[in-house]
Amino acid sequence: METALSILVGLGLSAACGFRVFVPLLAVNIAARSGHLSLATGFDWMGSDAALVAFGVATALEIAGYYIPWVDHLLDTVATPAAVVAGTLVTASMVTDMSPFLRWSLAVVAGGGIAGAVQVTTVLTRAASTASTGGLANPLVATAELGGSVVTSLMALIVPVATVVLLVGFAVVAGAKLAQRGAKKPAAPPL
Predict the structure, then answer these.
(1) Please, are residues 135 and 69 in contact by the beta-carbon 8 Å criterion?
(2) Has residue 191 been placed in a domain?
(3) Does a structural domain hold residue 120?
(4) Does residue 16 belong to any structural domain of this protein?
(5) What is the DSSP letter of 187?
């Protein structure tokens, strides 16, 4: 049961990495330092003083950068692969009592995958915001993404089962909306 919960915590935090790369890493550091979270063997560095400073500074810079026009798009190009790496790292750091091969396989496929999926969604949302409002609504998008990262990180640490259930629910709803949108497109007229 403990292994299953640690996997769910890792997946929830990985999803949060898709919104903001460093917020969940800072949350892991704070939770580990406070004794709320046990890190897997070899990941003790994530709860260190140096990691607290690094994750804190990186979080502040990342948050500020998303409020600067054009920097937000530049950050998206860097954040997409970084979110996958962070999602993989966070999931691997949560999973205990599992062979390294299975831990890293799960971390790469599930943790990196969910972080990448969420990040792609945020990139597409920002692109749509830029196209429809000339970028004027991008700070609202940035605020929503930050809120998503903070709330998802906290929920993953406090109620991991509910977090994963909500994430799956959002994925199902989003998939259904995409399927509806694809079905509504009229067929091209014959030539």
Answers:
(1) yes
(2) no
(3) yes
(4) yes
(5) P
Q: Which two tokens stand for residue 106?
A: 């799960």
Query: Is residue 92 one of the residues assigned to a domain?
Result: yes
pLDDT in tens, the chain (191 residues): 688 889 999 999 999 999 999 999 999 999 999 999 999 999 999 999 999 999 999 999 999 999 988 888 889 889 999 999 999 999 999 998 889 999 999 999 999 999 999 999 999 998 999 999 988 999 999 999 999 999 999 999 999 999 888 888 888 887 787 778 777 766 666 66
In angstroms, the first-to-last Cα distance of the chain is: 60
Identity (one letter) of the amino acid at 124? L
For 65-79, b/e burial (b = at least 16 CB within 10 A) is: ebeeeeebeebbeeb
Structural domain for 34, as ranges:
2-184
Residues 6+ apart with CB under 8 A from 62: 20, 21, 22, 23, 75, 79
pTM score over 0.90: no
